[in-house]
Each structure stands twice: as structure tokens, then as C-alpha cells.
Amino acid sequence: MNVMQVISNLEVGGAQEVVRTLAEHLAAAGCRTVVCAFGDGPLRQDIERLGLPVELIPDRRSSVVDLPGFLGEMARIRRELNALIDRYEIDVIQTHLLTTLNFLLLTLRPGRPLQIYWTFQNARFVLREEHLGKRKILLRPKRLAHRLLYRWGGRRVDGLIAVAEDVKTSIQAHIGGIPEAKIPVIFNSVDFRRYQIDVDRAAVRGRLGLRPTDQLLAVVATFKEQKGHRYLLEAAALLGERRPDLHLLLIGDGELRTALEERTRALGLAERVHFLGTRRDVPELLAASDGFVLPSLWEGLSVALVEAMAGALPVVATRVSGTNQVMVDGETGWLVPPADPAALAAAIEALLADPKEAAARGDRARRRVEKLFSAQKQARDHLALFEQAMGTNGREPAQPFRRTFHES
Predict the structure, then answer these.
(1) What is the C-alpha to C-alpha distance for residues 23 and 50, in angstroms, rounded to an integer?
(2) Which three-class secondary structure string do you get for the chain?
């Protein structure tokens, strides 16, 4: 079976990490896998080092307002996708983080026994006011149009893969009219071996200008409203006098970075909150930390959370979509309400006050990830889904490639 993973870009991010991990382990399970993206990024080299091909197609630049330009670019993208499908003899296409292009892929099916799956990475995927800029008056009609389009397309794809049960519930609520059997749930997962490493904690901390005795909590998340960083900053301010040695590592970047840096200075936390930007040494940074915090307002199923648990870190997280499936409150960490700095501060205080209990919860978190959220299980679940659809539709398994990827 020959599978193409299609994603918006190859920047560092949770969905991109899912594609990298899934491509690697689908290949290990016997699928010939290619990754196609509409924007380059650091993960391309990671994927190519695995011996897997990456194809880049220039994204469209014209909006639907420029109808001739929009249609011309969509036609060009369609030609390039068709060429890739023929070149690699693709049987299955799975998309991530696409919007309009999700629907373009449906035009590739005539005359081909091609499976198409849309992956939903977030429980709040519906159009929101912030997506419209100054055109907020169009919110209701655009939401209706999106709903009707997704309902039409959802009936024609082979499946809408939800990364958590809460995401499936959201699909059913906001799209509707899609048979439940067409919304399989396959958890986002990680290669837990990457996060079970020994590091010189003092050396890693020293490179960050920190002492071995400092209490260190890590956060890996894009700086955007969804991730709730501002509530964590307020929680850290509440803990200020009681925990003078507490430091936060904010790993990531995004549109709210400047605003968060300003808020950090206003709260008097500039010496204790460290904005590290996008990093490629996340496993080492996690291993050098005492715990992990995820203050999100909503999620799909956070890859960063699973990574931290794989590294046996005790976790404080908000009780939002996906997170309450990954964690067990009181057993693998602490769950608190979203947008509640006081509750967040209390949970962080509990983590830091009892290192023995925190370590025990971290160890239970690691075992839970190994059992339920391993990359190998994720690949097996996808492969079973693809094979089931092939049998249901009366399709024969694809013939092997006439050439290897390295020859193409």
C-alpha cells in the first residue's frame, strides 16, 4: 500500500511532528510513504534522513476574491498532485491542516481507486471571528458555507480521522450528517524512545544560565490564544514569593510572543521566564526539567503533552479536549480548569512541594504513553483503517512500486 501524507507546511509543530512520526512508522509497517507539503521547513530534512521522499508544491497566493488567479492556481496544484499520485502509484492520501485544498483533493478521485482521509487535529476547527479580520460581519454566512461544504465533502471522503474522542464529538456537532463509522478516532502518538534519554541536567541548565538547584518547568506550545500562556504567567506571579527559584522555559514561537514578553516584564518575571524560541533539542530540555505545564484553553490532542509524559515528566495541564483522555487526574498528573491562574498555581505548588509523588505520577504517565500512545500503535491503527477500506470498497492491494523512492 502506497500512502501520501499531505500537510500545509513542514515547520516545527504538533501536526507536523505527527506526520513525521506517522510516515516513519507506516514505512516500518510496510507502507511505501511519501510526504507532500505546500511550505518548506526544518522537518523536511528530518523526514528525508529517514529515507522517505518529500515533495514540495508551491502554495496558492491568490484568494477566492481574485477568482481568475485562484482558479488558475488551483488547477496548477491539481496537476502537480495528479503527477505525484501517478509517480508514486498512491493508494491512500491523508491530509493535515488543509482547508480549501481538502476539497481540491476530491477532484483527483475519478478513474482512480484512491482513498482520501481528512485528519482533524483540533476540537475547535470551525471558523472564528479572528479568522476574518475586518470582515466579522461575514461570520455567520461563512460558517454556514463551511458547514455545508464539510458535510458535502465528508460524505465523499473515506474518513474524517479525529485525533481524540472530543474531536470526534466536535465534528459531529459542527458538521453533522456524517455517519459515525466514517469518523474513526486514532490518537496522536509519539516515538516514546526519543524522550527516554539520560542527559547531564546541570550542563543543559548551565547553557541556559540556570543553576542545578533551580525549579524548572517547561512549556512547549505555539504562542497563540489557544495555548493559554498568559494564565500561566499570572500563575507564576502568584507563586513568586513562595517559589523564588521557579523558572519557566517557554519553548516555541508565534504571533503573541511580543505581547507575552511585555506581560512577563509587567509581572516582574523577566528574570524567571525564558523565551527559547523554536528548538530542535526539546527531548534534552524536557529531560532537564522538573515538570511540564500545558495551560491550553482548548486542544485536539497535544503532541507536546504526550512527549512530556513519554519522558516521565510530572504534568500540570488544563482539563480540555484531548488532554482529559491522555491524562488521568491524580494518577499521571494534575488537571485544572482552563483560564484559572489560581488553580494552575495551586497545582504547580503541589507538584513542586512533593517531588516523590511528582516522580511517581511521571512514571505512571510514561507507562500510559507506552501502552496507549506509541507511534507503533498509531501506525498499526492507520494501516488497519486503510486495509479495511480497501476490502470494503472491493479494491485489490496495490502492486509494489516499479522503482524505489530513492530512484525517483
Answers:
(1) 9
(2) CEEEEEECCCCCCHHHHHHHHHHHHHHHCCCEEEEEECCCCCHHHHHHHCCCCEEECCCCCCCCCCHHHHHHHHHHHHHHHHHHHHHHCCCEEEEECCCHHHHHHHHHCCCCCCEEEEEECECCCCCCHHHCCCCHHHHHHHHHHHHHHHHHHHCCCCEEEECCHHHHHHHHHHCCCCCHHHCCECCCCECHHHHCCCCCHHHHHHHCCCCCCCEEEEEECCCCHHHCHHHHHHHHHHCCCCCCCEEEEEECCCCCHHHHHHHHHHCCCCCCEEEEECCCCHHHHHHCCCEEEECCCCCECCHHHHHHHHCCCCEEEECCCCHHHHCCECCCEEEECCCCHHHHHHHHHHHHHCHHHHHHHHHHHHHHHHHHCEHHHHHHHHHHHHHHHHHHCCCCCCCCCCCCHHHC
- Hey, what's the cell of 170? 466536535
pLDDT in tens, 274-301: 999 999 999 999 999 999 999 999 999 9
* Of the candidates 293, 306, 296, the residue with the CA atom closest to the CA atom of residue 371: 306
**What is the signed CA dihedral for 57, 61, 67, 70, rounded to 10 degrees?**
0
pLDDT digits (tens, 9 = 90+) for 81-134: 999 999 999 999 999 998 889 999 999 977 788 999 999 998 887 665 565 556
Q: How far apart (Å, rounded) are the C-alpha atoms in residues 276 and 404?
A: 40
pLDDT for the residue 394: 46
Q: Which residues have CB under 8 Å from 210's CB, separation 6+?
A: 216, 247
Q: Is the pLDDT of residue 395 over 80?
A: no
Give the type of residue at 323: T
pTM: 0.88
